[in-house]
Amino acid sequence: MLELLDSPDLAVAVTLQPLKRFALDAAIVFTDILPPLAAMGLEISFGDRENPEGPRIANPIQSTRDIDLLAVPPASEALGKTLEAVRTLRGELGATPLIGFAGAPFTLASYAIEGGGSKNYARTKALLYREPAAWARLMTKLVTLISDYLAGQAAAGASALQVFDSWAGVALGREDYVRYVQPYNRRLFAALRATGVPVINFSTGTAAFIEEVASGGGDVVSVDWRMSLPWYRDRIGAGRAIQGNLDPVALLAPWRELRPRVDEILDGAAGSPGHIFNLGHGILPETEPDTVARLVDYVHERSAGSR
Predict the structure, then answer these.
(1) Residue 219: exposed, middle, or buried by beta-carbon count in 10 A (0-12, 13-18, 19+)?
(2) Residues 55 and 44 sit within 8 Å (Cβ to Cβ)
(3) Between the N and C ends of the chain, which has fewer C-beta atoms within 10 Å?
């Protein structure tokens, strides 16, 4: 993984692979959400071929002093490999849109504090409860670096940007989200308006406070599969585009089970402008590629009349 992240040529090759196999409408640059943390001074690892594992941080944040020592370097210097990949991809893709992305402040903060994934995010929540001033410093640093990084991707040729807040809905309730996350997301999305490209606000597990997520910013609100598309539309409003929201596990089902779920999403989006059909989260490794191809073709077939 680290080899792929360190090589723009390999990142370009991986980005292009899905487009060579499937009739997708856009590409998303191959990278990971954690390189900004490495740029700040944290040590990231992903295991190896013999012992693969989720991302781990060898020196997680354990004190307020650790937060103060985190660097905030220019993205052009610290994250230049991804920006180079974006520039190369812009030339390779022609008219096909390219999506750039980064992790949201809370999700990156939780990785930095927990040292990896977590079941209860106890360390992260303990810090924000006990040391609100330190939490504010950490989130401000992250907003600064993430906004610079995403702006760099847009300048390099990304057609749209996506901000992944994968863990806020898992870790937090409405009140904590509004107090400890929403203000920093608003700063980030406000800063990204200057890029002039559409920005997607992605989160999962946030149905209970999707209105607060949407009010944080973004031209597109990405929603998961836990509620129906019309349910989300009622809460987000008719003027915002929505991305989603097929359950990734549904792709493991036979077509006779999968097709009605796809129809439900497309029917739920009918009559409302601005829908990007997508999964509610990442695709599972055990998904059959032929199922993906059939899904993509079916969505195009059904959507052709509404384009």
Answers:
(1) middle
(2) yes
(3) C
* In contact, 280 and 247? CB cutoff 8 Å: yes
CA angle 103, 106, 110 (to 5 degrees): 95
Cα–Cα distance, 60 to 42 (Å, whole number): 7
Compute the radius of gyration of the chain from its Cα atoms.
19
| Its pTM surpasses 0.90 | yes
pLDDT digits (tens, 9 = 90+) for 268-306: 998 888 999 999 999 999 999 999 999 999 999 998 865
**Domains, the chain:** 2-222 (3.20.20.210)
Specify whether the CB–CB gap between 244 and 224 falls below 8 A: yes
Q: In angstroms, what CA-CA distances link 107 with 176, 190, 219?
A: 14, 18, 20
Token output for 257:
């089970």
Six-digit token string for 192:
């990204």
